[in-house]
Amino acid sequence: MQKISRLFLLLLAVAVPALAQRDIGDIVVTAEKNTVPVRVSANSPELNLLAQQAFKSHGRYRVTASGYAYDIRFSLAAGNQVRVDITKGQAAAPVASTVVSGTSARNALLRAADFAVEKTNGLGLKGYFTARLAFIGERTGKKEIYTSDLFFGEVKQITRDNALALMPRWSPDGSRLLYTSFFKSGFPDIFQIDLHTYQRTTFVSFKGTNSGARFSPNGSQVAMVLSGEGSPEIYVGNAQGRQVSRKTRSQAVKSSPCFSPDGSRLVFAMEPGPQLYVMSTAGGTPTRVTSGVSGYCAEPDWSRANPNKIAFTMRAGGYQIGVLDLSTRTAKQVSKAPFDGIEPSWLADGRHLVYTARDRSTSVLCILDTETGNSVRVSPTAFGSVMQGNVWTP
């Protein structure tokens, strides 16, 4: 029972509200010479609001009504289609135009906005606006899993466990979620939900704690933390929760395993500290990769866009978001907010990420530009407290 308690405390170590100096809001760190001024508009009030929100979340852009480098105009076409027209400068020289289809008008707008980003950012960045979120929300009074688009449209409640749910993680094809819940046995087990049928199945339920499940990039493997053999250890199984094999062997508490983009390595947090360690997916001796930046480094997320970048939660007074560069073995704090920042999840461009921001009374999801420290809130006040956002890119 002692080992179960220690692991559970580590899983929730940064989930208990901490004191902050002021309420959560946007953090704007302007770097004019590194931004592209754009005018953004759409021909319907709803789509115009969404387009403005999307581009204002992106640290590469500065939305303005005058002095713009590009004019990006969206218009609703037939059905769930949106046309985007991009012109350059005051002379309105044509840059690109296209019609984009989506699953809804809202989705089509976000797809068209990603097209506009790729045509205008000048740095080779991918668009990230069409990302989808899985997250924990508390609007029913219990921690349940929800999904939505990146800007909290088309929200769906996925679980109704009426119990503590934790750490939803997408499959690479977006068809399933893995998560940890206490609803069945009173102990943490890993469950899988099919997002087409909403059928829930038990993925792993061994003696002790079962938590932190995460798919490999190709979907063929799942890493997780199990304590059935004594200490909480990293295990890897197949996509059906079978052929589970132990990969670490020590008394130290471990958490939050995450695959490298090519699936050959795992990063995870391990005590003391904890600190971050990397090891081969096949097993072997873990190598510590954080040192000196903070005495507490946890919740790693390995960027798919940049295999040298790992985002993580670090302690710096309160909690903040850090980024480790594996090419130089250096890490730095990238969030600059007076409130806590935890639980990072990379977006598709390898520059921005979604994270949980929290103050003394609530927690919300925000988009962070890791280059500038800009932080923009995306979860609405009316939804209540949300946390543990995980990103899937179609």
Summarize the structure.
The chain has 394 residues and is mainly beta. Helix content is 10%, strand content 43%. A hairpin with a 5-residue loop joins strand 25 (340-346) and strand 26.
Structural descriptors:
globular, Neuraminidase, mainly beta, Rossmann fold, 5-stranded mixed sheet, 394 residues
Describe this structure in words.
With 394 residues, this protein is mostly beta strands. The chain has two domains: 2-26 and 128-392, TolB, C-terminal domain (Neuraminidase), CATH 2.120.10; 35-120, ABC-type transport auxiliary lipoprotein component (Rossmann fold). 10% of the residues lie in helices and 43% in strands. It contains three helices and 29 strands. It has a five-stranded mixed β-sheet with strand order 2-1-3-4-5. A four-stranded antiparallel β-sheet has the order 8-7-6-29, with no helix packed on it. It has a four-stranded antiparallel β-sheet with strand order 9-10-11-12, with no helix packed on it. Helix 2 packs across helix 3. The chain starts with a helix and ends with a strand. Residues 1-10 and 12-22 have low confidence and may be disordered.
CATH class value of the largest domain: Mainly Beta
Count the DSSP helices.
Answer: 3
Give the averaged pLDDT, no decimals: 91
Helix content: under 10%
Q: What is the C-alpha radius of gyration, as a whole number of Å?
A: 21 Å
Low-confidence stretches: 1-10, 12-22
Number of domains: 2
Look at the helices and sheets and give the structural class: mainly beta
Distance between the ends: 41 Å
CATH architecture of the largest domain: 6 Propeller
Main β sheet profile: 5 strands, mixed
The CATH topology of the largest domain corresponds to Neuraminidase
